[in-house]
Automatic annotation (TrEMBL):
Residues 28-225, 241-443 form the dTDP-4-dehydro-6-deoxy-alpha-D-glucopyranose 2,3-dehydratase domain. GO terms for molecular function: lyase activity. Coiled coil: none annotated. This is NDP-hexose 2,3-dehydratase. InterPro entries: EvaA-like, EvaA-like_sf. Pfam families: Hexose_dehydrat.
Length: 450
């Protein structure tokens, strides 16, 4: 049996090069998503915490929890590092969900079964999602709703049919040690048709990744975890050297994060409608009601995190000896299981740092924001996880830089890596954060100039 990933990577590369699918034209996908949004009739409205059904603040801890003990809780987190410390609310969801995409060959080319899925936090409600996107509470029907379609393909797949399978972290600033199983599973036989699902090539999905708020976060992370054909073997740093640097970064950061009662978090205030910082920065916890959802259950209420503004997430891009590289950041986030994961060069909400002097702003932020238009290789707005975050958007960028703005020898905590090296690391758990995986999903086409 072939033990290399190469055959899978080559099949995925062929799919990425195929922009005309066997089933639907790419140009028709946004209209199909919009039709599902209109026909669904979903209404999401903000409500006071008192109107949450089955959710309440615990009398002893102040934690926001569901009466079933399932789904998730909103608790406090105390993070201490040398020279700094902070407290914040954070979502605690220890169960591991499934983010799974079915793959099948049509005319010799892999196609992927993508879903038009409603998530209450999406700015446009319906986006292109994996075949299956479900927490354990969802697929075990803790909500009392209907079954998750196509779930059986991912619960106990034949090993030979699995193209990628890895546990990946989610937003370490908003989730406490959250992981999901990212899977692509190939099928041979017939798959029942459903109007909420469409078969697309990887090339079609890459084209859709150029459009604002079309491909959701869960689809992006699954696709980024799949193996790719390396563009070459040369790099500024060897794979062994990269691993030594990254392991050193994990070892040098002293991070102590502990859960604490939400009611004791310092600097956060709760009123009837929200729980937020006194200075209005970062994010707030709010509550929403969802009606006419067209999901496993038709309606529900839930707490949800709302960022205060659109974020900026970007890779600085340079070529060294003709080889594309991006500048990765070993980033600390309080909710990570390990101390750091590889993140984009810049990942922030700019207004959070507006009060600070220039020297304390995130490194390289101004280089990306002030880049000349001809240097911007990629610029698209994507929303984050729509099930837990409300209107959480970031502008994702890949910006060509130079020695003056991003030196060959970057400051501590930063390292130049090739897209191939980043893809290699994304095939393992807790190496590449979810924001970097979004950019990785499109990086091959960006660096190729497409």
């Amino acid at each position: 049996m072939e033990r290399s990933w190469a055959p899978t990577a080559e099949r995925l590369a062929l799919s990425a090069a195929t922009t005309a699918g066997a089933h639907v034209p790419t140009a028709g996908v946004p209209a199909w998503l919009e039709e599902h949004r209109r026909s669904g009739g979903t209404v999401v409205r903000r409500i006071p915490f008192a109107e949450l059904a089955h959710w309440s603040f615990a009398a002893d801890t102040g934690n926001l929890r569901h009466s079933s003990g399932r789904f998730f809780t909103v608790e406090g987190l105390d993070v201490r590092r040398p020279g700094t410390q902070w407290q914040q609310p954070i979502i605690v969801q220890p169960e591991i969900g499934i983010l799974g995409i079915l793959a099948k060959e049509f005319d010799g080319v892999l196609h992927f079964l993508m879903q038009a899925k409603m998530e209450p936090g999406n700015p446009n409600l319906v986006q292109l999602s994996p075949t299956v996107q479900a927490t354990r509470s969802n697929y075990t029907k803790a909500h009392g709703g209907t079954a998750v379609k196509y779930l059986e393909h991912f619960l106990d797949p034949r090993r030979e049919s699995v193209l990628t399978d890895v546990l990946q972290s989610e937003h370490g600033a908003w989730f406490y040690r959250k992981r999901n199983r990212n899977m692509i599973v190939e099928v041979d036989g017939d798959v029942p048709d459903d109007d909420a699902f469409r078969w697309l090539t990887l090339g079609q999905i890459h084209e859709l990744l150029r459009l604002d708020n079309v491909v959701n976060m869960d689809a992006r992370t699954v696709l980024a975890s799949a193996p790719s054909v390396p563009a070459g073997t040369r790099a500024l740093s060897s794979d062994a050297g990269l691993m030594t640097w990254f392991t050193g970064e994990r070892a040098r950061h002293d991070v102590h994060a502990r859960r604490m009662p939400l009611g004791e978090v310092a600097g956060w205030r709760r009123d009837a409608y929200s729980l937020g910082r006194a200075d209005g920065r970062f994010f707030r916890v709010v509550a929403v009601s969802v009606e006419g959802a067209g999901r496993e259950v038709a309606g529900w209420t839930q707490p949800i995190l709302e960022p205060v503004e659109r974020g900026v997430v970007g890779f600085a891009y340079r070529e060294f000896g003709g080889v594309p590289h991006v500048l990765a950041h070993a980033r600390v986030e309080g909710g990570f299981l390990d101390t750091v994961e590889l993140a984009p060069t810049v990942q922030c909400a700019p207004s959070n740092y507006a009060p600070l002097p220039a020297g304390q702003r995130p490194p390289f932020l101004d280089a990306l924001l002030n880049a000349a238009p001809e240097r911007v290789r990629y610029s698209t707005v994507h929303s984050e996880e729509g099930g837990r975050f409300l209107d959480a958007e970031s502008r994702y960028l890949v910006v060509e830089t130079d020695e003056a703005t991003t030196p060959t020898q970057p400051p501590p905590g930063y390292h130049w890596v090739t897209p191939g090296q980043l893809n290699w690391l994304a095939g393992h758990s807790r190496y590449v954060n979810v924001q970097a995986r979004t950019l990785l999903a499109i990086l091959g086409t960006v660096t190729a100039g497409r």
